[in-house]
Amino acid sequence: MSKSTKATPSTKATKPVKAAAAPANAAASAAAPAVANKAGQGIKKVVLAYSGGLDTSIILKWLQDEYGCEVVTFTADIGQGEEIEPARAKALKMGIKPENIHIEDLREEFVRDFVFPMFRANALYEGEYLLGTSIARPLIAKRLVEIAKKSKADAISHGATGKGNDQVRFELGAYALMPGVKVIAPWREWDLLSREKLLAYADKHGIPVDFKKRKGGAPYSMDANLLHISYEGGVLEDPNFEPESNMWRLTVSPEKAPNKAEIIELTYVKGDVVAINGVKLSPAQVLTKLNELGGKHGIGRLDKVENRYVGMKSRGCYETPGGTILLTGHRAIESITLDREVLALKDDLMPRYARLVYNGYWFSPERELLQGLIDKSQETVNGTVKLKLYKGTIMCVGRASKLDSLFDPTIATFDDDGGAYNQADAAGFIKLNALRLRIGANVKAKRDAAAKPARKVAGKAAAKPAAKKSARKAK
User: Is there a catalytic annotation at residue 55?
Assistant: First the structure.
């Protein structure tokens, strides 16, 4: 979606946003059908992921015209920070029956069932990206399918473009939950592929267009939810262009963050934060509060060139203040409550898990299998973590677990441990671990020794012709 339209959980726009005068024939182009009319193809009812913004309003009308079908709208609040109720009035104005308008607050489900499980895995895509957009898509796909089943719809529809990852995520999720579902992706079907054609279509059908959108809109596209805001496209398509400071919305710049550090305490139960500074909070409340704290201290900005699943590289800027704090805190509490090899195994699996989320395989058997292993590891991840927030940085300054800490000070101490650890044992341990290295070094030494006579013979043979040649030159 673009900055000039409402933040929406249903689509992540990547349409052109550069300002340009509408061509003289734009109205004529919009007057003609975008594609051959698809009425009569067996689609009688479709559930549309609808934000109430310009793009999905155009899609709503296009579905009515091209498919001649009844449209059911689904609008989700997953913490994008903007009012979603106006979508109801817009849908009614577009002729949608009141019983076909679904507006739902999914913030708690989003954090509890999607964000928190992902953070138990410490998931990072390509080592940096906290998957803010990726993790929202399976929830939307799930609700689209549930509403389609309940309303006996024939298809679902979304506003993702044919170039992005979101089309894959929505549709893989839908097919996993409803194998026979039909998917209508207008951006892969219509010819409204320019801003001018979209505006002309909106004018023809009386779809309101705000002034900013008509004058050129935002210089980039945005997607927002409770975990993050992403910025892509437009001026950001030059990976060497530094974004303007006023682009960022959730965080202050580290340079302008408070000069005094703030220490916060997170309480963990089975890998999830349940309280901040001793105050119990729901999952959505936890993330909301951490966003506030992180944003205040300039934490969570990322400028990244990533590899999309569809094959191209894409530059994106992200703000994930609360998520950045969650990741740091979770790794800190795991450091004292998880066995060394369990931690190593989780770290080995994390990139695979992150790719599954990024590529849209949330409902795949392999992701669910990994989740079971990860959740089993979290049974002992209980305790508290103290984090110091300061000018874009996070430092862990304390971690404790009364019942599950594997940190034994009587063994780890550098002072007299009273015999808890026999340092003489280390000699045998080191020798056994060095055995293969010693064997390898001995074999290499024998091999090198055997090769020396051969090298000497070869050297002498090469020296004889050289000596004869030198003698001839001397004569």
Answer: yes
Query: Which residues, listed in sequence order, are joined to residue 280 by a DSSP beta bridge?
Result: 275
Report yes or no: 328 and 336 within 8 Å, Cβ to Cβ: no
Per-residue pLDDT tens for 404-435?
Answer: 999 999 999 899 888 899 999 999 999 999 99
Catalytic residue among 29, 221, 230, 314: 221
Give the whole-angstrom CA distance, residue 248 versus residue 42: 45
What are the domain boundaries of the chain? 36-217, 245-338+381-407
As its CATH architecture, domain 245-338+381-407 has: Alpha-Beta Complex (3.90)
pLDDT at 21: 38
Residue tagged active-site, from 137, 143, 195, 399: 137
Q: Are 392 and 298 in contact (CB under 8 A)?
A: yes
In angstroms, the CA 163 to CA 140 distance is 19
The active-site residue, picked from 2, 29, 51, 55, is: 55
**Per residue in 161-205, pLDDT tens?**
999 999 999 999 999 999 999 999 999 999 998 888 999 999 999
Nearest to 50 by CA among 25, 19, 74, 81: 74
* Dist. CA 390–CA 395, nearest whole Å: 8
CATH no. of 36-217: 3.40.50.620
Residues 139/114, Cβ–Cβ less than 8 Å = yes
To the nearest 10°, report the CA torsion of 61, 67, 72, 73. -40
* pTM of the predicted model over 0.90: no
Question: 77, 154, 166, 272: which is the annotated catalytic residue?
Answer: 166
CA torsion 69-72-73-76 (nearest 10°) is -140
45 strand-pairing partners: 70
355 a catalytic residue: no
Sheet of strand 155-157, all strands in order from the earlier edge strand to the far edge? 101-105, 70-77, 45-49, 155-157, 182-184
How does pLDDT run across 308-351, given as a tens digit for each residue? 999 999 999 999 999 999 999 999 999 999 999 999 999 999 99
Residue linked to tokens 């964000």: 115
The more confident residue out of 468 and 444 is 444
- Degrees, nearest 5: CA angle 462-468-471: 140
Let me know if 154 is a catalytic residue. Answer: no
Residue 348 bears catalytic tag: no
Per-residue pLDDT reduced to its tens digit, 46-62:
999 999 988 999 999 99
